[in-house]
Write a structure and sequence with these properties.
This protein is mainly α. It has a single domain, classed as MFS general substrate transporter like domains (Growth Hormone, Chain: A, Up-down Bundle), CATH 1.20.1250. The chain has helices spanning about 20-25, 35-55, 60-65, 70-95, 100-120, 125-150, 155-185, 190-210, 225-230, 235-265, 280, 285-300, 305-325, 330-345, 350-355, 365-395, 400-430; strands at about 5-10, 10-15. It has a two-stranded antiparallel sheet with strand order 1-2.
Length: about 450
Amino acid sequence: MKPGSTPVSGGEIDLSVAPVSLFVVANSFSGKLMSPLFTMCVALVLNTIGFANYAAVLPQVRDGVGISEGQAGIAGGLFFLTYALGSPVFAALTDTHNPRRLYFIGAVFGVAGGLLFPLIDGSFTSLLASRGLTGLAMAGTYMPGLRLLIETLPRERQQGAAGVYVSCLTLGLSASFGLSGALDVVSGWPAAFTGAASCAALSLFLVYVRMPSPSVTQATESVLSRFSAVLRRNGVTAMLVAVAGNSWEGMAFRTWWIALLVYTSMLPGNGAFKGINFAIATAFVGLLAMPLSAFVARRAESRARYAIISCAAASSAIVSIILAAVVGANFIVVFLITVVYVCTIFADAGALTAGLLVRVPLAERGAALALQSIASNSGACIAVAFCGFVLQSSGGASSAFAWQVTILTVGAGSAVTAVVMLYLHRKLFDQEPQGKEVS
């Protein structure tokens, strides 16, 4: 078994397949157009439209609803809170309930979240409810969708199909920014929410029409007992802290990135860039980060695994310091540095997952992934809300100093990851079997 893979129902997920995922998906056209793999990948991308639609139109939402930076941060963080709380619940339910039915519940949450705000009610309260429901929708469609796909396929196809499905999250994130930005241009920012609701409804219809209803294999152990077993493994708790640090930085910056570009475009000398739709302009960056993440994951398949991850995380923290220093510079300079920053933020994401999974045996990896989801989304929830309050209390979104403090706060997440990984490298180096998982 390769260290960058995780089993699903007797197969393995190869976490290094992200760069070729688009090729594999496209290749499905040469076979059966609406195969289970193609169907579930399309459904995943459709459901992910609601992931970043809020961040894509955040400046417009703030102006339209009249909320502060702190309130905007709370709304953004609530998505990750409900995602963090819902992920282990829905993941556990797939062991005892039909994943197709669970998927329907998740998709309905997505439709409700998109329609509630601003179509039914444009208040801050409805915005909170909308983001909370959308987070539950992501939790209710992602893991049940993966389980549905795996249960539908023969064992020999499970590994490759699951790897492609997981990697399509990055594609969905880029699509979320791009489509939300385009809808904003055509119909205004409310369309970014109703568009996400429409995409969630389309995914529900697609799965209902194209995916069968599989039988369920009952789990033999409780979820809590599996969680406890994973947490007792040497180095796992530290790995979860590192995962939370990476997500702290990644999701906080993704949420506030568009707002930062809007601020920069309004500075003297940058007026020519005011008319750009930054959600569309940044949609491609996720695709740039995919091969870099795969490269770092490959390089990390060695006894120096944690040192390599530490270097990747430290490079991201360094770029955050550079970005904070030039936040008031020429727009092109700031934009290019933010692109580099996003790439470095996600460079160690795949390696972190593999680094966690090699600490646990085969039978505990599902629980390890659930704990990773909790750590990741909890870190994102706290970061998005906290950075909003930092921005507000430091002078607001029109203050260069406030943005500098906020960016440094964001970058602190990778600094924590770098320190934790260096600690694990020194502690576990002699115990780390090259290219093998813990047994």
